[in-house]
Amino acid sequence: MAEKKMVEAITSMEDNFSQWYTDVVHKAELARHSSVRGCMYVQPYGTALWENMRNELDRRFKETGHENVMLPMFIPESLLQKEKDHVEGFAPEVAWVTHGGSEKLTERLCIRPTSEVLFCDYYAGIVQSWRDLPKLYNQWASVCRLEKTTRPFLRTLEFYWQEGHTLHETADEAKAETEQMLNVYADFAEQHLAMPVVKGRKTDKEKFAGAVATYTIEALMHDGQALQAGTSHYFGDGFARAFDITFTGRSGKVEYPHQTSWGMTTRMIGAVIMTHGDNSGLVLPPKVAPIQVVVLPIAQHKPGVIDGAQAIADSLKDVARVKVDASDNSPGWKFAQWEMKGVPLRVECGPRDLEAGTCVVVTRHNREKITVNIADLPEQIPALLQQVHDGLYQKALAHRESATHVATSMDEICSIAKTKPGFIKAMWCGDLACEMQLKEQAGITSRCIPFEQEKLADTCVCCGKPADDMVYWGRAY
Amino acid sequence: MAEKKMVEAITSMEDNFSQWYTDVVHKAELARHSSVRGCMYVQPYGTALWENMRNELDRRFKETGHENVMLPMFIPESLLQKEKDHVEGFAPEVAWVTHGGSEKLTERLCIRPTSEVLFCDYYAGIVQSWRDLPKLYNQWASVCRLEKTTRPFLRTLEFYWQEGHTLHETADEAKAETEQMLNVYADFAEQHLAMPVVKGRKTDKEKFAGAVATYTIEALMHDGQALQAGTSHYFGDGFARAFDITFTGRSGKVEYPHQTSWGMTTRMIGAVIMTHGDNSGLVLPPKVAPIQVVVLPIAQHKPGVIDGAQAIADSLKDVARVKVDASDNSPGWKFAQWEMKGVPLRVECGPRDLEAGTCVVVTRHNREKITVNIADLPEQIPALLQQVHDGLYQKALAHRESATHVATSMDEICSIAKTKPGFIKAMWCGDLACEMQLKEQAGITSRCIPFEQEKLADTCVCCGKPADDMVYWGRAY
């Protein structure tokens, strides 16, 4: 009955992709809607998934010399207003604290939508000499942007993220940092989430408020929509000038330092769902799966079966995150339940298997069944998890390749945008007007100017003037 | 010069304890004042210290079956008002968000001062049957209470904490949980922070808004003031009734579940400073120290010395958090610097030491110098760190014992309160009026009714009526 209910409840992604997504979020128990508009209750399974992502990113940040700090959630209005472009970008969607208890505050405080200005205020107090540079900071925090329409993980009023903020002696050093962190994000996405990404630069229209340049990794979801998976910004010395951050350089001259910031958020959970999930639910990349192996005793009422399952789990404790499901639910219910939760490997063991010293390992993503000697499991499971990771990555890459199209004329790009979901590669002259026209006529935005360029044509897909840049276009989350 | 500046800058705790505290926070680079009133910029060293505390607490929570979740930072006004005592306790000091961008919100949102009501709203959606219980949740978050006077770590508008929230089938189970988590806190304080604590129950006057009972661990600081180091609350079914959380019990009857919450905050950093620190700065308990061993090359310009220091550090990597300071600063400056930062062990190695295959290990807390064979360090250092931990605990315990006084009459308790900083043990009849009078006449509050009772007298220290409860009284942070 419970089994039936679960299987019935999930919408197929072909019928309604958006509903499929919401169903997976709820049925896999990642998050629930809350009574706070646009905010989620992130459940234990979703939180454990985020913690695994966070721990790996944190490890990579520390490995590259970054230190964590904790800055306030509030920004006084006067501080937010110091950098003109930045405040214009964020002011329309910030939450304002105006009262404490029943008293009106003397100055309004906004909830940080991002923390550049707080870091600037902090830097100003701790940097005097070139010897104090670089400052390589990161913080794990939640931030708030009052969006009109929201969807769990993809767009919420409050979201969880890390924001790196660094300050450098030279522009070159800051630019190298921006690139390094984009590579950290790309490696994390590919090696840890099995998610292929395109690395590139945002157009001026799409860049971060206050940045000189924004770099991005872009992923392609099942439905052919793009998702900005991580960004890294180079600020030049604009913020330093606005906040009067200076240092005495090597030559004794007073100089302005150069700044970066970079962030990745809980929307990566949404990206994982829409990159790997299927009509049976979530499919988790093994390296971040809260449970990597679930052991299911079959005919568990028979003597020794539950003990056998537990012994298998015990033998795997040092090589994988493993769980035994010896609950009273039927095997069919359990299969559906753990498939819904996206556990990469299922180990089935019944009385005859145990007698023969074997078990059946089933992969979540392609339901391959492999008979393995129980004694070999501790050696086999890590290799199988890596195989699953590689399989997921190749599958996602093949999907992206099949859904990446080329257009060389306005007619063609409009026609593709209407009929073929996915990335469209096309040349662009660099003119904002063309970018606007593509948005209006084809309903697509520039995703990035990829670092790996191809010369598809000599002219802009829109205006026909000479064009040097190949751009990825698409619809985006 | 720098050395002199540092040594001069710290106020001695005998001269001005409060200034000494602030000096240590700043000079040890734990945190800085921010441009956001009452909020801190927690620097890398302070953040690393908090992360070490957090990781150990998190490990203990997971070991006792708890799962992390992430709930919103906002509470809609209507939700906050559902439980009468709770809202009365917190409403005067909450921050209210009234506007999003330039638009007025239809309902005000407060920044969570604590999350009981959000957890209740969450529980109501996920609990139907006794099979769904218990729910054992925790979250790591920051919360906000608009205090008038603030001090870094001890009392800030925004502070970082964990808040455990659990829901149980029976009152007994919930009470056992409350006690279990108080023990987790006490063990953590004693075994990890080397901080002796008194376990007990708060009086009704001092308990948490909305709780049936609040349990606490109380520590004693250098200056004889008490610090509430962690609390655990039993709520009965009061919140469940207010939020209409019910479940179908084993007998088929609809019942109200029983609830707890428990929290520990960044004020533990303040407690560590004021329990172990001295006039040379911070003294960190080894188990949470971001750097446990600092290796200082002496006469480092001589050939092989820096390499030798680095080799020592490399040999310790697997047994301790170790750092080499091969900066250009003088040995004297380095001694002062790493003492200020409270690093438990300093390893000094000069050319002659290295030639002899020995080095000198100096303990931070009592400046004991021990000559150790370099080859023995990987074995010796863990043992020395444990010795330092034990030494810190014994020193703090001795201080607490010498600063714990007994009073049996009102004259006596007033006189002690005026002249002898510390805990005062005295009998209490349980009457609020006596508690108020002790506050007024002696300037002290009840810290807790300790689990370990002593019969000091038959009558209340204040009114002289029969009294059963021995209470710890004192001034508190």
Query: How many domains make up the 3D coordinates of chain A?
Result: 3
CATH class of the largest domain in chain A: Alpha Beta
CATH superfamily of the largest domain in chain A: Bira Bifunctional Protein, Domain 2
Total helical elements of chain A: 15
Number of DSSP strand runs of chain A: 23
Largest sheet of chain A: 11 strands, mixed
Helix content of chain A: 25-40%
Seen as an oligomer or otherwise, the chain set is: homodimer
Structural class of chain A: alpha+beta
Report how far the terminal alpha carbons of chain A are from each other: 36 Å
Low-pLDDT stretches of chain A are 1-7
Structural notes for this entry:
Two copies of one chain form a homodimer. Chain A is an alpha+beta fold and 477 residues long. Chain A folds into three domains: 9-276, 2-Layer Sandwich (BirA Bifunctional Protein, domain 2); 293-384, Anticodon-binding domain (Rossmann fold, 3-Layer(aba) Sandwich), CATH 3.40.50; 404-474, C-terminal domain of ProRS (Translation Initiation Factor IF3, 2-Layer Sandwich), CATH 3.30.110.30. Chain A is built from 15 helices and 23 strands. Chain A has helices spanning 2-9, 17-27, 44-63, 77-80, 84-90, 116-126, 171-192, 238-243, 267-276, 305-316, 331-340, 351-356, 377-402, 410-419, 432-442; strands spanning 31-33, 40-42, 67-68, 74-76, 95-100, 103-111, 135-144, 158-168, 198-201, 213-220, 226-236, 247-248, 254-255, 258-265, 293-297, 322-324, 345-349, 358-363, 369-373, 404-406, 423-428, 445-450, 469-474. Chain A has an eleven-stranded mixed beta sheet, sandwiched between helices. A five-stranded mixed beta sheet of chain A has the order 16-15-17-18-19, sandwiched between helices. In chain A, helix 1 runs parallel beside helix 11 and helix 3 packs across helix 7 (171-192). The interface between A and B is large, with 53 and 53 residues. Strand 5 of chain A pairs antiparallel with strand 5 (95-100) of chain B, so a sheet runs across the interface.
